[in-house]
Amino acid sequence: MIQEKAEILLNQNIALDHYKLVVKVDGLKDAIKPGQFFHIKAGTEYDPLLRRPLSVHRIGSKPNIIEFLYKVVGKGTHLISRRSKGTYLDVIGPIGNGFKVPKSQSNFVLIAGGMGVAPLVALAETLAGFRKRSITAIVGAKTKSCLTCNKELKELGAKLIVVTEDGSAGEKGFATSALTDIIEQFDLRKTDSPHVKKDAGHLTIGDYRPEVGLYACGPIPMLKAVSKIARKYRIQVQASMEERMGCGVGACLGCAVKTKRGYEMVCKDGPVFDLEDIVWE
Ligand SMILES: Cc1cc2nc3c(=O)[nH]c(=O)nc-3n(C[C@H](O)[C@H](O)[C@H](O)COP(=O)(O)OP(=O)(O)OC[C@H]3O[C@@H](n4cnc5c(N)ncnc54)[C@H](O)[C@@H]3O)c2cc1C
Ligand code: FES
Question: What are the boundaries of each domain within the chain?
């Protein structure tokens, strides 16, 4: 992890309130993993004091070039959107564990709600490099104009399923509405291991079915619903959790989530968690 001045190569409005930010970070030493994020100083002075976390959206092939996708929701993201090409952003990163992608797995289902799509495109980018694999991306958004990654996901070889809350594109509903159908296509019932019983205890790595890996990012209600469906089919879900953040380095305890091991910090221990470990309140 480094603190660097990142040169802005592009900061473009691509849809209502949605921006693509491309930066050059010269001092990067470690390879960036999908699911990691950068903590970005939004203003040029001390207001706002706290940095804003943004997931890596595209890692790309050019060294030190990173792409972010963000939505303007408040002061911090508004200030970032005002920064112009050729100026510098103060960034800390890459932070966090990132998604683990077992090379033995060949069916990947990515499920995104809203801006949760941002890190999942970076994941699809990595998976696209695997030789034998199928990628299905379920992308849920409020309305058609918030769908900003369809083309990229298709280009990366993902089978794309779009779901919007108002029905303006794809199916009408939530991303999770499409999930059961997709899982059923893998025909898990025909394999040897029985489905998890209703009262099954904590699942561990050996209990998961190897056929499918589920990767999620989105609002908490979506993650809760994904967790419930995945548990029924005994599929592991790795989810990037988007808690509000302060320090970004595990010091302020501002991003705590309750897990079966106790409280853990999204910035230091995550942001990617096995959803089976999360205690929903
Ligand atoms: C690890 C991580 C990665 C993220 N990656 C992305 C990304 O790639 N693209 C992107 O657009 N956003 C991402 N976010 C969310 C982003 O950090 C927030 O939207 C941003 O910090 C809001 O700052 P603001 O000053 O603009 O808004 P604020 O004025 O701080 O808040 C405006 C509104 O947004 C809500 N909000 C703020 N932060 C969050 C949050 N973390 N989760 C849910 N609601 C929040 C507030 O409750 C409030 O209603 C990520 C968050 C985390 C923790
Ligand atoms: S943001 Fe401070 S502990 Fe995570």
Answer: 2-95, 107-245+251-277
